[in-house]
Every structure is written in C-alpha cells, then in structure tokens.
Specification:
single chain; globular; 29% strand; 14% helix; 3-stranded antiparallel β-sheet
C-alpha cells in the first residue's frame, strides 16, 4: 500500500467563542442527532448545544474545540488535543 504525507496547507483556526456557531439545538434534539453526552462539555451557558454546518452535516461544538476554516472556506470543529498535535502556528 502506498504512503502519503498531508500537504502543508495553511488554514485559519480559532478556539470557539460564542458567535462562531451556525446555530443551536436543544439537548434532546442534539442527542437524537448523535451527540454523545458522556464527556460532553457545553461551551456556552445557554442551555442549548452549539453546532456548525460542515460538508458532512451538522457537527456539535464542545468546550475547547477549535473552529477550522479550510481551503475551500468550509468550517469544522476540531478537538483541542487533536488540533494541537496536528497544527502549528504560522502567524497570528
């Protein structure tokens, strides 16, 4: 099997803050849509779960997630521990 290395393409990213989401769901709706409550930390104090609409569908945002904007303008959340292992800061 061939091996590949990811191209070093710069992306924009910022740790989630209120206002970066595309919307909010009630917890019941989020759970029915696949949100795993075990270990979930809500990043906002609204009583609702923030989400981003990605190319793969709706993704819920957890406390500490980074919001990445890809090369086509697409946005998606990334867990902080994975983000810090995968990306390095070029400039701020």
């Amino acid at each position: 099997m061939a091996k590949y290395v990811k191209k070093p393409i710069p992306v924009e990213a910022v740790e989630y803050t209120f206002g970066l989401e595309d919307g909010f769901d009630d917890f019941e709706v989020a759970i029915k849509s696949g949100l795993v409550i075990n270990g979930y930390e809500n990043p906002v104090e609204t009583g609702k779960v923030p989400f981003i609409k990605t190319l793969e569908g709706k993704h819920y945002i957890s406390k500490g997630d980074y919001i990445i904007t890809g090369i086509e303008g697409e946005r998606y959340p990334c867990k902080k521990n994975i983000f810090l292992k995968t990306y390095m800061l070029l400039s701020s």
